[in-house]
Write a structure and sequence with these properties.
Shape: globular
Helix content: under 10%
Distance between the termini: 17 Å
CATH class: Mainly Beta
Number of domains: 1
CATH topology: Porin
Strand order of the largest sheet: 1-2-3-4-5-6-7-8-9-10-11-12-13-14-15
Oligomer: single chain
CATH architecture: Beta Barrel
């Protein structure tokens, strides 16, 4: 659940809240008890921050924040359920080659403590920083690059999103994203994927990705998507809209050519 509360009539000042299930950084879901694990009822406020836009295009945020991934996804960046504490300044433009410049400083940690009220005491304990630049290469191509400092590790990321013109049948979009960890144990990874629109109601995507074995936060686990974590794999996912209110979908991933133990060699999900 995401909510935004306006403080002033001009909508320049607001309070944002993100409340979700899950018991940790990479978890936004709860076990039902019908499959593996016992029933869980976790529900926490993970994000709570104040935002101010004193002039159009310039925004400041402070508090428990969402992560800024640019054109990268949770595959090569941080899980969609992740969180940080800190401050962020972002400058955006509506047109032109330059899209955004964002700088974040704050704290990343307490990976098994999703409740933001229990983490606020670390707001001044700085161990995280990011500078992200986003751009437009024409009307159909968006790009971003960022440098992230994460508790002693230096990481570079790049993302490219391409929307195909309507004249291209079936294939609607392409995605390329990558990262390079420069310090501690160096490593790199990538994700290449495409999206298909088979019918107005049926869309799917698929691709190949590689996340190297040392993509780990010491004392925790991989910070990226929990359905991916580490390894080389191909994947497909899709959805079918039964009505405006109801859709069914799937995710399928299969690891290959991985010479070490990974927690999810095979994965299949059905989504409603």
């Amino acid at each position: 659940m995401r909510a935004r509360f306006l403080i002033d009539p001009a909508a320049r000042f607001s309070v944002h809240i993100g409340a979700f299930g899950g018991s940790q950084f990479v978890s936004g879901w709860n076990n039902t008890g019908g499959g593996i694990g016992e029933v869980a009822r976790d529900f926490n406020v993970k994000q709570l921050f104040v935002a101010a836009e004193p002039v159009t295009g310039l925004e400041f945020q402070v508090g428990g924040l969402y992560l800024n991934r640019g054109e990268n996804t949770e595959v090569s960046s941080y899980d969609n359920d992740g969180y940080i504490l800190g401050e962020r300044a972002t400058f955006r433009t509506a047109a032109g080659a330059f899209a955004q410049l964002a700088a974040t400083v704050g704290h990343i940690g307490e990976f098994r403590t999703p409740n933001v009220f229990e983490r606020f005491r670390h707001l001044g304990d700085l161990n995280y920083g990011q500078v992200l630049v986003g751009g437009r290469l024409g009307p159909r191509i968006n790009v971003s690059v960022d440098y992230t400092y994460e508790a002693g590790r230096d990481i570079l990321r790049q993302g490219v999103s391409v929307r195909l013109p309507p004249s291209v049948k079936l294939l609607t979009a392409l995605k390329f994203e990558a990262y390079q960890r420069l310090t501690e144990v160096a490593g790199q990874g990538f994700n290449v994927s495409g999206e298909l629109r088979l019918t107005p109601a049926f869309a799917m995507s698929g691709g190949v990705l590689h996340i190297e074995r040392h993509c780990l936060i010491p004392g925790y686990s991989s910070p990226n998507a929990d359905r991916v974590e580490r390894g080389t794999r191909f994947f497909t996912q899709g959805s079918y809209a039964i009505s405006r209110e109801l859709a069914v979908g799937w995710y399928q991933g299969e690891a290959f050519n991985t010479g070490y133990v990974i927690p999810n060699q095979h994965r299949f999900e059905i989504l409603v």
